[in-house]
Amino acid sequence: FMNITLDLHSEECMQHFEAEIMKIDNVIACHNISGRYDYLLHLVVKDMDDFHNVSMIRIRKIGNIKEMNTSFSIKEIKSFKGLPIK
């Protein structure tokens, strides 16, 4: 998981970031969130070299990124099985 804070928050800057994130297949989910960070990304990578390539090269290359904070899932406790709607 990666939390991202943008440096500039104009509509144009946010649209640019979102459009570029859509091009990165390793990003399987992207949420514009409230609180300290602007975005929460869910990434999938095959190994740490792939993580470095995706995070430090492809995502950073988008630009306008003030802060990146990453967390790794140690163990999935509960996964999404579908909405509980009948």
SSE layout and pairing:
Blueprint: E1 2-6, H1 11-22, E2 27-32, E3 39-43, H2 48-59, E4 65-70
Antiparallel strand pairs: 1-3, 1-4, 2-3
Detailed description of the structure:
The structure is a single chain. This protein has 86 residues and is α+β, with helices and mostly antiparallel strands. Helices cover 28% and strands 26% of the residues. The protein contains two helices and four strands; from the N terminus they run E-H-E-E-H-E. The chain has helices spanning 11-22, 48-59, and strands at residues 2-6, 27-32, 39-43, 65-70. Strands 2-3-1-4 form a four-stranded antiparallel beta sheet, with helices on one face. A hairpin with a 6-residue loop joins strand 2 and strand 3. The model has no long low-confidence stretch (mean pLDDT 95).
Average pLDDT, rounded to a whole number, is 95
Strand content: 25-35%
Please list the strands of the largest sheet in the order they lie side by side: 2-3-1-4
Helix content: 25-40%
| Sheet of most strands | 4 strands, antiparallel
Terminal residue distance: 31 Å
Structural class: alpha+beta
Q: Write the element-wise H/E pattern from the N-terminal end onward.
A: EHEEHE
Shape: globular
Low-confidence stretches: none
Query: How many beta-strand elements?
Result: 4
Number of helices: 2
Rg: 14 Å
